[in-house]
Amino acid sequence: MPMYQDKAIKDEIMEKMILKNRYAFFNNNLTAVLSPEQFNFLRKVQRFCLRYQKKNNIQHSMDEDIYKWIPDFGAEGYVTRSHQMDELDIHYEEHGAVAEMMRVFACDQFDTQFTMAMGATILAINPIKVHHEGIPERLDALRDLITGKACGAILITEPERGSDAVHQLTVTEPQEDGSLIVNGEKIYNTNAPKAKWVVGYGSAVANEGNKMTQYLVNTSWDGWKSERVFIPWTPKIWIGHNYFTNLRVPPEYVLGGVGKGREHMFEGLVPERLGIAIGNVAQAWTALSHAFLYINMRKQFGQEILKFQGVGFTFVDMWARTTNLTLGLLKFCEEYDKKMEKFGGEIPRNISQAMIASASHFKLEAARLTERTCYEMANLMGGAGVCDNTLMWDLVGISRIQEVVGGTRQIQQYILSMATHQLWKMI
Ligand SMILES: Cc1cc2nc3c(=O)[nH]c(=O)nc-3n(C[C@H](O)[C@H](O)[C@H](O)COP(=O)(O)OP(=O)(O)OC[C@H]3O[C@@H](n4cnc5c(N)ncnc54)[C@H](O)[C@@H]3O)c2cc1C
Q1: Distance 359 CA to ligand 1 centre (A)
Q2: Would the CB of 408 count as within 6 Å of ligand 1?
Q3: Closest ligand 1 atom to Cα of 410
Q4: Is 2 part of any domain?
Q5: Which among 125, 146, 167 is the end of a domain?
Q6: How far apart are CA 179 and CA 175, in angstroms?
Q7: What share of the chain is helix, strand, coil (3-state, %, to 5)?
Q8: C-alpha of residue 222 to centroid of ligand 1, in Å
Q9: Mean of the pLDDT values across residues 296-324?
Q10: Cβ 13 vs Cβ 298: under 8 Å
Q11: In this structure, are 329 and 407 located in the same domain?
Q12: Per the domain annotation, does 5 fall within a domain?
């Protein structure tokens, strides 16, 4: 299967834009700031991606199934490295926010849509990790997801409840035996049609935020139906429109009973937004790496296009912005890891509250960065940037949805406006 429908870029240039060289550009940017441990883990995941791509002859063509690769990455512990998984007897030497950042940087250069799909599984992993309470059924689901044996999804958004996520219309009716009966509709849930495990939200009474619940569902249960919503900007990722019809969630799978759902949803938002910001910065680097190689080789008017200010200066502007945001995120992740260690894996509420604003700062800025950087880097590559010969078309597409997912740009601004007022009250 060819990588593209027609070869638009000449071999000499294509041969240089390979994953190995893109990693080399990226690594040269970070060697000075990463610790040896951080850099070694980054290299380890990169080596795995290089070998995996070669061994499986992965071409990143339009018709490739990215979901097929997840079990192999999971077997290496590369679905996520945010957590240590002692409860499953899985012990990752490298784990935490920084390790996760390194994993995402390596995986995104390999395949950006694949990396986003794994990211949605992480959104299901996070709440189970925090709320499994040692219950075997929950631990089984966690093991499936962390090892890549199964795919996961998070179900917050509904057709009539997007940004206003606390007023859920999905009804989760509590039963005497502790189970929930779920009826409702969810939409735009990444991975849902492919998922074995989904974490959903609802409310005992429609529209009542203080009666919200959180529950885990095995999609083989009666009462679950999932249809694909096709998002043309991310054609390889399966997004779901899902229906619950009298679906019974047994008590072992109720992660947050009536009244607990809202709190559980908010506690997941800091890691979710941080994860999206890391993914966004990684996308910017993947785009920069392609353009860096291309503009150093492509000639017009008898010289490399990098030498024209319109090209070179556009490149360096986005390069500087991406570098700065990377350093900011790295510092934040290092501090996050230190606090997790200091407080035994659970950051006190007052500190985690303070992190809400930082997570929104990063999400807001990183989504904007990837949108601009991917577009500008494709633009610098001319026709070569917009045809299907490289991963640039994936990047232009995926970067266009980042201001919508995980809370829109306007919602981040709204959160930050409220935080500004809170800070004022503290003066
Ligand atoms: C590719 C993709 C993947 C997704 N994955 C998931 C997933 O895995 N799980 C999940 O649950 N959801 C997912 N979503 C849903 C996503 O979180 C929502 O689309 C998003 O929260 C916005 O909701 P909405 O689409 O209903 O838009 P609306 O909430 O209807 O917003 C429409 C517009 O109004 C603005 N707006 C709304 N309220 C305000 C306000 N108070 N102040 C200012 N502006 C406002 C918004 O910013 C936006 O511009 C995904 C969406 C996409 C596109």
Answers
A1: 17
A2: yes
A3: 47
A4: no
A5: 146
A6: 5
A7: 55, 15, 30
A8: 28
A9: 98
A10: yes
A11: yes
A12: no
Cα-to-centroid distance, 188 and ligand 1 (Å): 9
Q: How many domains does the chain have?
A: 3
Say how far apart CA 277 and CA 296 lie, in whole Å: 29
Atom in ligand 1 nearest the alpha carbon of residue 192? 8
Pair (64, 116) in one structural domain: yes
**How far apart are alpha carbons 352 and 354 in whole angstroms?**
5
Element (H, E) at 339: helix 309-342
Task: Give yes or no: residues 319 and 375 share one domain.
Answer: yes
Query: In terms of domains, do 305 and 239 share one?
Result: no
d(CA 423, CA 261): 27
In a domain, 3, yes or no: no
* pLDDT per residue as tens digits for the range 74-101: 999 999 999 999 999 999 999 999 999 9
Same domain, 222 and 163: yes
Tell me, yes or no, whether 103 and 198 share the same domain: no
Which of the 8 DSSP states describes residue 6? Answer: S
Does residue 114 share a domain with residue 135? yes
103 Cα distance to chain centroid: 11
* Residue 345 and residue 382 in one domain: yes
Owning domain of residue 300? 262-425
Residue 355's pLDDT band (cuts 50, 70, 90): confident
Atom of ligand 1 nearest to the CA of 120: 8
Task: Provide the total of helices (H) and of strands (E) in the chain, helices listed first.
Answer: 13, 10
**Probe target for ligand 1 pocket from 408, 410, 413, 416, with the most ligand atoms within 8 Å of CB:** 408
